[in-house]
Amino acid sequence: MKRNKSFTKIPFYFVATPIGNLSEFSNRAIDILNNVDFIACEDTRVTGVLLSYYKISKPLISLFEHNEKEKALEIIKQIQKGQTGAYVSDAGYPLISDPGAILVNELLSNDIYISVINGPSALLPALIGSGISTSSFYFRGFLPPKLNLSFDEESCLRTRKETLIFYESPHRIKKTMSYLYDILGDRKVTLARELTKINEEYLYGTLKEFLTFDYKTIKGEIVIVVEGSTISNEDIIFENSKKQVSLLLKENYALKEACKIVSLLNNISKNALYRAFLTDK
Ligand code: SAM
Q1: Which of 57, 68, 90, 179 has its CA 20 to 30 A from that of 272?
Q2: What CATH number is attached to the domain comprising 168?
Q3: Which residues line ligand 1 (CB under 6 A)?
Q4: Domain boundary at 117, 135, 166, which?
Q5: How far apart are CA 68 and CA 116, in angstroms?
Q6: What is the pLDDT of residues 97-144, one digit of tens each?
Q7: For 178, what's the count of Cα atoms within 13 Å in the CB-facing half-sphere?
Q8: pTM, whole model, 2 decimals?
Q9: Of ligand 1's atoms, which has the minimum distance to the CA of residue 122?
């Protein structure tokens, strides 16, 4: 067991940075970046803009997804020589759909204390402005590039009662929204785009309404907030069972046999499942 006590001497900081509007950066974050010996960042050009806005000049180390382990070891060497540093990603919190997780773990396993400096992130303003329940939420970040979630992952998303939050880019938003409709059915959804920037916008509707939406007007960075599942656990088990029967039918099982297997596995009525299939046809 380890204890990492804040406000003793912290040699390394993870600092959240603005998600668009450069003035959303705390005095504390600026002080920290002014006082460390070096700054590691995801992209030196992006961080360069922020640092020059705040007239901060420090040696930069570029640490991104594909060199994280190697650069983490370099950073640890600098800290062991007595230097202090900070890591920033391009926008928002490092590690939130951004690099930094390997660095955190390497620092911790070398007994180097870290601290996190708060600031903006896209997910919370999107959730708060969405009008959808904030009492519990599930942050999924980016869906896989080919939108090819497994059966289990899809049913897990479909059955979650928490509000669902996704990150998305404008070139894929249309496909993603239609995929979400396919796997979740019709639900309340809010798109929050270009948060904190001049073109900030919230679009409120349902997944079905967005099927016919003209996405040409959707540019910039986007967060998708979708209402959680409102169906009962019994209905969820029944819906999943129907999907499992469909999978067995594709494997050339007879309908009766498929219903028997799935009803035994899920402890539900074989006849109800069978009837549901005959009605759906
Ligand atoms: N680390 C960031 C954070 O804490 O939010 C997320 C970085 S991730 C690489 C970039 C994605 O975050 C974008 O594709 C978009 O989904 C979301 N995002 C970032 N800035 C945004 C903004 N200003 N408005 C809406 N979404 C934003």
Answers
A1: 179
A2: 3.30.950.10
A3: 19-20, 89, 91-93, 96-98, 121-123, 167-169, 192-197, 221-223
A4: 117
A5: 18
A6: 999 999 999 999 999 999 999 999 999 999 999 999 999 999 999 999
A7: 8
A8: 0.88
A9: 5
> Alpha-carbon Rg of the chain, whole angstroms?
24
Determine the 3-state secondary structure of 269 from DSSP: coil
Do both 37 and 113 map to the same domain? yes
The CA 170 to ligand 1 mean position distance, Å, reads: 12
Quick check: is 198 in a domain? yes
Q: How far is the centre of ligand 1, averaged over its atoms, from the C-alpha of 83 (Å)?
A: 31
3-state secondary structure of 88: strand
Whether 155 is in a domain gets the answer yes
Q: Which sign, positive or negative, has the C-alpha torsion 41, 46, 47, 48? A: positive
| Domain limit, last residue, from 74, 89, 117 | 117
DSSP assigned state of 242: H
Q: How far apart are CA 70 and CA 63, in angstroms?
A: 9
